[in-house]
């Protein structure tokens, strides 16, 4: 008789457990839907004010015999697992630039040329656009090698404000004219969002320099243009910060982003920066974006450009950038690290062989 009582009570508990289970699952569905909405609006998953409101409401309605303390304890556990679930779901989806979100490589079209499709892309040119004659000489050399891109700085982020700051829009006009003549595509850095509109007609790819990698208003601005962006890694940026900077651009509507490892700041003085070669396969693994290596700025010395370029391609870089100048000794910027055209000829021949 005693056992029958116990069994009856337990059977009733079993029934209630099933009801609770169903209700908790219904609640979980709603929690997930709230999490998706929060993702869209960029809201935090944990909302202590909302949790407090729920607790107050339940305390008011609680008629016992369960104490408020016990009820609060149970609900706090429910909140805790709900927040965790929302965070896990949103983390799983990953960033837009993440491989988790898109497994295929992003291939970027630049006026009929594809970047990131398997064949390496080479981007060469002087540090700064200085004159029509200078750009002609570089462009003719590139075109003779069958190359498709030319780079050159018009807006220069110089460490010293007294150094050559670039020719600005005039420089871009020179480069664009020369590039048309030799059927080359133009890559150049923009430092200020207010220059974008005037500069875009002369550019095929907009470069965001290392010093502006976390200039979030500039990243948002290039997120709204319809030309590809080459984003350089910041001087002291972690890979995670770099990837998040790329996310800013894609998140604002421009999916055509390329990453460029250009060396990071360390204690080592033998090179201008320390090339983080492992960043290349990590970025290839964690994102679906094309990855470049700037061999000039990462090393700052011409004698190791060839092995560094080979190393970059060997670890999976989609492209190489380097500086080439017809007369490096009189260059208005980076005189020591740019290859002369003769040095460039030897470098390129050896790179391909
Ligand atoms: C479901 C939400 O997310 C979290 C979980 C809550 C819950 O389980 O009720 C309440 C607030 C948030 O910490 C929400 O914000 O409504």
UniProtKB/TrEMBL annotation:
- List the coiled-coil residues: 6-33
Q: What's an example GO BP annotation here? A: chorismate metabolic process
- The Chorismate mutase domain covers 1-90
Q: Which InterPro entries match?
A: Aldolase_TIM, Chorismate_II_sf, Chorismate_mutase_GmP-bac, Class-I_DAHP_synthase, CM_dom_sf, CM_II_prokaryot, DAHP1/KDSA, DAHP_syn_2
Query: What are the UniProt keywords, alphabetically?
Result: Coiled coil, Transferase
State the Gene Ontology terms under molecular function: aldehyde-lyase activity; chorismate mutase activity; transferase activity
Q: Which domain of life is it from?
A: Bacteria
Q: Name one Pfam family in it.
A: DAHP_synth_1
The UniProt entry, under PANTHER family, shows: PHOSPHO-2-DEHYDRO-3-DEOXYHEPTONATE ALDOLASE, PROTEIN AROA(G)
Name of the protein: Bifunctional 3-deoxy-7-phosphoheptulonate synthase/chorismate mutase
**Which species?**
Turicibacter bilis
């Amino acid at each position: 008789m005693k056992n029958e009582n116990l069994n009856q009570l337990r059977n009733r508990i079993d029934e209630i457990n099933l009801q609770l289970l169903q209700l908790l699952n219904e609640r979980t569905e709603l929690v997930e839907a709230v999490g998706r909405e929060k993702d869209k609006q960029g809201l935090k998953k944990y909302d202590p004010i909302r949790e407090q409101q729920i607790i107050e409401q339940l305390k008011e309605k609680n008629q016992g015999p369960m104490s408020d303390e016990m009820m609060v304890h149970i609900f706090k556990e429910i909140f805790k697992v709900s927040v965790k679930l929302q965070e896990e779901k949103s983390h799983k989806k990953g960033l837009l630039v993440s491989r988790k979100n898109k497994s295929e490589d992003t291939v970027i079209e630049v006026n009929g040329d594809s970047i990131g499709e398997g064949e390496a892309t080479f981007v060469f040119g002087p540090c700064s656009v200085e004159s029509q004659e200078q750009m002609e000489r570089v462009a003719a050399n590139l075109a003779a090698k069958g190359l498709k891109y030319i780079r050159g700085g018009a807006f220069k982020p110089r460490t010293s404000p007294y150094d050559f700051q670039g020719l600005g829009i005039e420089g871009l006009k020179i480069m664009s004219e020369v590039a048309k003549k030799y059927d080359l595509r133009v890559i150049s850095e923009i430092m200020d969002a207010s220059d974008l509109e005037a500069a875009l007609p002369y550019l095929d790819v907009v470069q965001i320099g290392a010093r502006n990698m976390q200039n979030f208003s500039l990243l948002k601005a290039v997120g709204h243009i319809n030309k590809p962006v080459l984003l350089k890694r910041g001087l002291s940026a972690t890979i995670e910060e770099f990837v998040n900077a790329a996310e800013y651009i894609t998140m604002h509507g421009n999916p055509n982003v390329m990453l460029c490892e250009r060396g990071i700041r360390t204690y080592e003085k033998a090179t201008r920066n320390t090339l983080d070669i492992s960043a290349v396969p990590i970025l290839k693994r964690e994102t679906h974006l094309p990855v470049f290596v700037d061999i000039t700025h990462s090393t700052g010395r011409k004698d190791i450009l060839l092995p560094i370029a080979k190393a970059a391609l060997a670890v999976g870089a989609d492209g190489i950038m380097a500086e080439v100048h017809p007369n490096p000794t009189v260059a208005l910027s980076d005189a020591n690290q740019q290859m002369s055209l003769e040095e460039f000829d030897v470098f390129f021949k050896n790179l391909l062989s």
